[in-house]
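Q: My labmate handed me this sequence with no annotations at all. I'd like to see what the chain might look like in three dimensions before we decide whether it's worth expressing. Could you predict it?
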Amino acid sequence: MSQPKEIFVVMSRCTACKTCEIACAVEHSGSKNLYGAISEKPIPKSRVYVEWVAPDGKVPIVCRHCEDAPCMHACISGAISRDDEGVVITDSDKCIGCWTCVMVCPYGVIGRHLEEHKAYRCDRCPDREIPACVSSCPTEALVYQTVDAFSSDARKDVAGEMLAGEGD
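A: Here is what I predict for the chain of 168 residues:
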């Protein structure tokens, strides 16, 4: 089985512009465009959260699709499962809005759509080759790669920085 792709964050590149949040909400809207999405009822929700931690830390946080997903085990209606790609998904037709999944998520990334009384989470945009949050990021702080590819790129970046520091 091939290694699934994940959404990674290069925190040094994030400017907290929240473009990823907007792109995510628009992608999960009925209209799929910004002008249509802002007038939809219920208002489309983002599944990525850009958090700011003092003094100058900012980080986009998305569902990690945990291998041993606590939300999936806690879901009393069976609405949360894993697809063939390893993505943890929520079937909104089965969701009863009990919020148990919200309570057990260690990352706090399962949202409550109060108007629909349903839970929602990152689904990695199954109709797109690259998730909307990743493709919209102007600084490329969000990266959609396999673990091996991301790790390899990170090692190359560090090695390059170390070599550049030798000349000082």
